[in-house]
Structures are given as structure tokens and as C-alpha cells.
Amino acid sequence: MGGPAYCGIGMGFGGGLVMRKLKDYLQLVKLSLTIMVVFSSVLSFMLTKGFDAYEDKLFRILMLFAGGMLVTGSANAINQVVEKETDALMKRTGKRPVAAGRMSVQEGWAFAIVTGALGIFVLGNYFNWLAAGLATFSLFLYAFIYTPLKKVNSIAVLVGAIPGALPCLIGWAAGDNTLSIGGWILFAFQFFWQFPHFWAIAWVAHKDYSSVGFKLLPADKGPTKFTAMQTIAYSLLLVPVTLAPFFTGMCSYNDTKGLISVGLLLLANLFMIGRCVTLYRKMDIGSARKVMFGSYMYLPVVLLALLLSKVHPAPPAGGVIGSILHLVSTLFV
Questions:
Q1: Are 83 and 156 in contact (CB under 8 A)?
Q2: Which end of the chain has less neighbouring CB within 10 Å, N or C?
Q3: pLDDT of residue 296
Q4: Which has the closest alpha carbon to 28: 65, 64, 69, 79?
Q5: What is the chain's alpha carbon radius of gyration, rounded to the nearest angstrom?
Q6: Backbone phi, then psi, for 81, in 5-degree steps?
Q7: Where are the domains of the chain?
Q8: pTM higher than 0.85, yes or no?
Q9: For residue 3, what pLDDT band results from cuts at 50, 70 and 90?
């Protein structure tokens, strides 16, 4: 009589274990961060001329997304394994699976090795080995150079900005199999973007970071006017970088969608600069948090604006609406 009831309880318990394990793996790869990173890679891929030549566009996007998720997830997993002891001491990271003891170091390493190798294979097999090589370099630089450097010197932010920007170059290489000027512009965009973004995070989490010896702000004394001024400087550098595609043939401002794109870029840059200026004026955590969240909004707006004004081999008729419909329809060709 009690058999089915016990069976149901067992299945529920087993299902609960599976869900908790899945949740731990999603935490291990830092899902939201990984999606943002891969998003920039996919948009960079779609900005290439090579993307237009693919007949199976949607499939290629999905493969790039999968490969990028696997490689980025691997790097984040290694980061959590290496920083297990440090993460356990900080409030914001203490509940991560390896730090909290819900996942062993061996399991974390095994997951990282399998996902990293599989992601590199996907990029090499479905795109090219230039993209796969860049992904391998990015993974190594982030996991084994940037991660331990955080306790040594604030130059870690500069070093970490390289693998942080490489997804754009990886996406470009996946589309064109070359490292041409367009890819380097996108790399520069995401490279400079990371400084106000990450310094805002370091400002908000300064107590946690300093308690474990992380040196991630440009000033030794913690959040200062100098740090806030640096965020303004880098946000200003983003203005010419985001407009550069219009002078290299990647994008055009000679039609309505191009003018809309330029307008969006100018507004996005003014928004970002304004947030950084407010941080300089107020010097508080609330303003730093606004820079942080503002940068999350700024990044996709810029990349989507560039995609809107991309120069296609055969520009579609129908203005802005026609361009959007053309872009959507090509995904399913």
C-alpha cells in the first residue's frame, strides 16, 4: 500500500537533487555574465561580411552561442575553483558551489576541462581554428593570469580586460576568418567599456574585495576622485571608438537606419558619461551602482545600433522596417 507513496517521495527527492545540482552548475558558469559575454561575440559575428555569406545563419548563431557558453563557462569554473578559499570569505561569493562545499574541487576541474575542450572544438569545427585559438588564449589568460593577479596589483583589471574583450574578436574571426580592422574596433570598444564597468563593481564591493586582498581599483586608498575621474576618461574614449565603424565601411550613416544608429550611439554615450560624472560628483555607492547597471544597458544598445546600420552586400529596400525584416528573415534561410 505504501509503495507508490514512497516511490513518489523518492522521485521527488531525486528530482530535487537534480535541480540543486543544475543550479550549482549554473552558478559555477556565472550564467548571466556568460550570456552577456557570448551576446557580444554573436553580435560581432553578425557584423561581419562573412555572416552574410552563410546560408544556415541561425544554425551558425546557435553554434557560436553554444561554443562561447562552453568556453566562457569553463573559464568561470576555473576562476571559482582557484579562488575557492577567497570566495568563501566574501559575502557576495560565499554561496558559490565550490566555496560553499557543495561541489568538490575535482568536480569543478572536471567540468571546466570538459566544457572548455568541447567549446574549443565547436568553434574550430563549425567556424575556424583562428576563432578557436583566440578562445583558448582568452580562457588561459582569464583563468591562469588575471585570476591570481588580482591579489598582486591593480594592473589585473588591465590584463583582465583583454580576455574580457576577446569575445568580440572571436566573433569577428568566426565570421571572416581574419583579424581585420572591424574586429579590432569591436575589441577596443569592449576593452575600454570594461574599465568604468568593472571599477564600478569594485567600488560597490570594495569592502569585500579589500578584506581578501584584491587590488582592483586604480588608487591604493580605495574609491577616490581619481577612480571616478578614470571612469569618465574611459567613457569618453568610447565615443570615437563606437563611431569608428562608420569610417571603416562596417556601418553607414547615409540612410535613415544609419542616422537612427548614430543617434542611438550618441545618446548611449551621453548616458554612460553622465553616469560617470555623477559618480565623480557624489562619490557614493549608489552612484557606482548606477554606473554598473548603466554599463549593462549600454553594451547591448551600442552593438545593436551598429548592427542596425551594418553595410550589407545588397542593402534591402524598405527603410528601417525593411532592414529589420530582412535581418530576421535571413536567420531562417
A1: no
A2: N
A3: 95
A4: 79
A5: 22
A6: -70, -45
A7: 27-179, 180-333
A8: yes
A9: low
